[in-house]
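Example 3.2
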Amino acid sequence: MLSINQKIVKRTFDVILAIILFFFIWWIIVLLFIISFLDTKKPGIIVQKRIGLNGLPFKIYKIRTMKSLENENDTTITIKGDKRITKIGRFIRRFKLDELPQIINVLIGNMSFVGPRPDVEGYANKLEGENRIILTIKPGITGPASIHFKNEEEILEKQQDPKNYNDTIIWPKKVEINKAYIENYTLLNDIKYIFKTLI
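Structure, written as tokens:
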């Protein structure tokens, strides 16, 4: 579990980086919002419920990439070939551009740049025992588990039962990776994960 000093350092780093990045990329978020609106004929920003710090729900912001069933209560697992995803949406997701509005979440304080990815209800909020250490930090835009499963949609697309594969193989591995991340946390590691995400 992170110490108070580590949490302060992590939050300070998040705020400084978020302010700097938002200053340079706010126009990209606005442009993606417009493109998504024209592409899907629906609001370009979607707000979804996710589980965050201490297992409490919060609202996460993303660029819309689907024409349907992409809303607050949509818990459907998506795969690369999901027909709900538009061609432009597929491009946006490929380069993780749909995650850019989460810089706002970082500024608000319910997300960090690095940490476990925020999950829908039924996963993180049901962690038990020592696995609940994952709920002691804010979810992240990226992290070691996200990097490890960077091709998650492609992996799920190959499975006959994507949900079962996610629940029995991917999710337990993510828990393992995220626990190790917290137990071995350093600011330097966070910076490394951010660079690994970008390259």
